[in-house]
Design brief:
The complex is a heterodimer of chains A (530) and B (169).
Chain A (H helix, E strand, L loop, with lengths): L1 H13 L4 E3 L7 E4 L5 H10 L5 E10 L1 H4 L1 E10 L4 E10 L4 E3 L9 H11 L2 E3 L47 E6 L11 E7 L3 E7 L7 H5 L8 H5 L6 H16 L5 H28 L4 H22 L8 E2 L2 E2 L5 H26 L2 H7 L7 H6 L4 H6 L6 H4 L20 H25 L18 E7 L4 E8 L5 E7 L1 H12 L8 H8 L3 H5 L1
Helix pairs in contact in A: 7-8, 8-9, 8-15, 8-17, 9-10, 10-15, 15-17
Chain B lengths: L1 H10 L18 H7 L6 E7 L5 H9 L11 E3 L8 E5 L2 E2 L3 H10 L5 E5 L1 H5 L9 E3 L9 E3 L6 H12 L4
Parallel strand pairs in B: 1-2, 1-3, 3-5, 5-7
Antiparallel strand pairs in B: 4-6
The chains are: A alpha+beta (530), B alpha/beta (169).
């Protein structure tokens, strides 16, 4: 706590005109900042060696129905202590301009374009103001997250074409890929500029799958939106529903019983396991090494069938609920999980030694798609991809949630940032997850698994929550509205921050390695597009 | 090499080791079955994601794993719609994907079957009514087969596909 105060005091000493909001004290530091100071103060937070702030989330709220302002919020994680610092500013009246922080903090680039698209607020000085989520055929002036934009009127169409950045010169070609791909993959567009085989530039053009998830949240009640959170990104059902539930639980001041928290950790690890197993196999498959793919597919299937037997859903849907979990496990079921995982761990270890002894595979993976630690830091990359580039961060250890305050998580990091490092992070995390499940099965206490919600929050109250899903850090901001409805729900899947980084990881690699690099990032299109 | 052989022998055959699909409503109409006559011994499908949450994609990928091994029924996944006999569409159709879906439908040679996979493709599921969702798949292209579920289990998808292609009794 004393340490925290010193961060806060340092910030206030450097910027005397900012005001600390004490209401949030304890959970994080909250400062009200005049908008003109934003670039300077965010730059200070980001670059000051003792603070080392990583941009974690930027969101806007349309508060006009209540107080005629737009709120802008910038959340930083101070790396040394994992402390959150939140900066808030307001745009009053007709003011629609705010200073861009992107020239100083690269990681803000997509967030600011998102705010521009969804709210019509303009980040002044932003180096790239092309449309991001609004494809060019969206009509002018359609900013869906403004409160006066009807949620249920389907968008009209206008003429328009997306302008890609071009590299011109002799022998430079552009290769368009997508939105529909050759495998069973989600929809997204990639535009490569190549000279011969090596990639000179990759530009992403995503958001084809934009379903208006954040606006749909605003039509729901706080207590009923869990199924929607589960469907933000289907492969991260538990991660997203847990992050949503935690945010709502802090609004309702609910304390989840210990057994409920242990079960949440267990289900989160099961989700991590089946996804990591699938990814290890798929990475091998993208080098045309089909054998590990077949074995991993089989093991992944075993875990999904286990999920189905335990909860009635292969994706663990309906497991998380407000106040705890909806499914309790018997001692017999816990023993079944441990026995099944013991079998799979032995199975997987044998496969690992087969993979490790395949020289041509390792040769293909090493030095492919290198994401340097510096680039990863600049883009505030999270999760598996960050840990493979040497960023030692894992919310399970750094900001414990569920039962992780009582479980010792060993964080896996590698330094090289290539495809092999990302695969090895996953392999090591598979073993770690299995160990955690065993630890849960030993330590899990008896008792209730959920509590019932009491009185709801006042309109305007809001809460933040973060979960280390299998891809990385999932962050939710939920703000209560009138009569139990949601006023605003900001969803951030790890994919949203990791996608831009892939544009740097592929440079100098050949196009045939792109699917491999893409698979090693294994990002969600649905969670990104929302 | 020895290690690989040992692993394969130890693992044995896992194909078919999955729970039976629950009896569901008939996914395909008799008109669709007539259309599918041509594809009884071989069916190439192209997956099109028009805005799903990616759970349906994951289950479709599971169809290719050794447990379900869909290729043993002569079903394979085509890399291009021009090589496909059927389109499998997942997700509600978003405003951004509407054009791409129609393009793909045009590019697929006749005769073709369109399979709407999952609740979202059939009725938009949780995303119904959103400003960014133009409607279910059948609003844009004719749909022959509907496989419900959120997402349907791989065994259910297999069952629906084999019912579609089985000879009439």
């Amino acid at each position: 706590m004393a340490e925290t105060r010193s961060y806060d005091e340092a910030l206030k000493a450097a910027f005397p005109s900012i005001v600390q909001d004490d209401a949030a004290l304890g959970e994080f530091s909250h400062f009200l900042v005049p908008k003109d100071l934003l670039p300077a103060i965010t730059h200070y937070l980001h670059t000051q060696p003792s603070l080392h702030g990583r941009l974690t989330l930027v969101w806007a709220v349309d508060d006009r129905p209540v107080c005629d302002t737009y709120g802008l919020h910038y959340l930083f994680t101070l790396e040394p202590s994992s402390r959150w610092v939140l900066l808030s500013t307001e745009l009053a009246g007709d003011d629609r301009l705010f200073p861009s922080i992107t020239p100083h903090i690269h990681a803000a680039k997509w967030y600011e374009r998102e705010i521009r698209d969804m709210f019509g607020l303009i980040p002044q000085g932003h180096p790239d103001l092309r449309r991001l989520i609004r494809h060019e055929h969206w009509p002018k002036g359609a900013h869906p997250l403004k409160k006066d934009f009807p949620w249920d009127r389907v968008l009209g169409r206008q003429q328009g074409e997306h302008h890609f950045r071009h590299i011109e010169g002799e022998g430079v070609f552009e290769v368009p890929v997508g939105p529909i791909h050759a495998g069973i993959i989600e929809s997204g567009h990639f535009r490569f500029s190549v000279a011969g085989e090596p990639i000179m530039q990759l530009e992403l053009h995503h958001f084809w799958k934009h379903r208006g998830v954040e606006k749909l949240f605003e039509q729901q009640k706080l207590t009923t939106a869990v199924p929607l959170a589960e469907r933000v990104s289907g492969d991260t059902t538990v991660g997203h529903s847990l992050a949503y539930c935690q945010a709502v639980e802090s609004l309702f001041h609910l304390k989840v019983p210990r057994r409920g928290r242990y079960l949440r950790s267990l289900f989160l690890e099961l989700e991590r396991l089946h996804n990591h197993l699938g990814d290890v196999g798929a990475i091998c498959n993208d080098t045309a090494y089909a054998l590990p793919h077949a074995h991993c597919g089989r093991m992944k299937e075993q875990i999904m069938q286990l999920n189905d037997r335990l909860t009635g859903s292969r994706f663990l849907r309906g497991v998380n609920r407000m106040g705890g979990v909806a499914v309790d496990l018997t001692a017999g079921q816990l023993a079944e999980i441990v026995a099944e995982l013991d079998r799979i761990e032995k199975d997987f270890s044998e496969l690992e030694s087969i993979i490790a002894s395949n020289a041509s595979l390792i040769d293909r993976l090493e030095t492919t798609g290198v994401l340097t630690e510096r680039t990863a830091w600049d883009h505030a990359v999270v999760g598996v991809v960050g840990r493979a580039s040497g960023l030692d961060q894992d919310l399970r250890r750094d900001r414990p949630f569920a039962a992780y305050d009582e479980l010792q998580v060993r964080v896996v990091t590698y330094r090289y940032g290539d495809v092999r490092a990302r695969m090895r992070v996953r392999m090591d995390e598979i073993h770690e997850s299995m160990r955690l499940v065993r630890e849960v099965s030993v330590k899990i206490p008896q008792g209730p698994v959920a509590v019932e919600p009491g009185r709801g929050p006042q309109a305007g109250e809001w809460a933040l929550s973060a979960v280390e899903g299998w891809r990385g850090e999932i962050v939710y901001m939920v703000m209560a509205g009138e009569s139990g409805k949601i006023h605003r729900c900001k969803v951030r899947d790890p994919s949203f921050v990791n996608w831009p980084a892939i544009q740097w990881a592929v440079l100098g690699n050949i196009i045939p390695d792109f699917p491999l690099i893409n698979k090693s990032f294994s990002l969600s299109y649905a969670g990104n597009d929302l | 090499m020895f290690r690989i052989l040992k692993k394969s022998l130890k693992t044995g055959v896992v194909t078919g080791q999955h729970p039976e699909a629950a009896p569901t409503v008939e996914a395909s109409t008799s008109a669709a079955k007539d259309k599918a006559k041509l594809f009884r011994s071989s069916l190439a499908f192209r997956a099109v994601d028009t805005g799903s949450c990616n759970a349906c994609e994951m289950e479709m990928n599971a169809l290719a794993n050794p447990v379900y091994d869909i290729e043993r029924f002569g079903v394979h996944i085509a890399a291009s719609p021009r090589h496909a006999d059927a389109l499998v569409v997942t997700g509600p159709v978003t405003v951004n994907m509407e054009g791409a879906l129609k393009d793909v439908y045009e590019q697929t040679p006749d005769p073709k079957i369109v399979i709407a996979l999952g609740d979202c493709a059939i009725n938009c599921g949780m995303f119904k009514g959103s400003y960014a969702v133009t409607g279910p798949v059948e609003r844009h292209i004719p749909v022959d087969v509907r496989i419900p579920g959120c997402p349907p289990r791989p065994a259910e998808i297999l069952k629906a596909l084999s019912e579609l292609r089985e000879p009439k009794p």
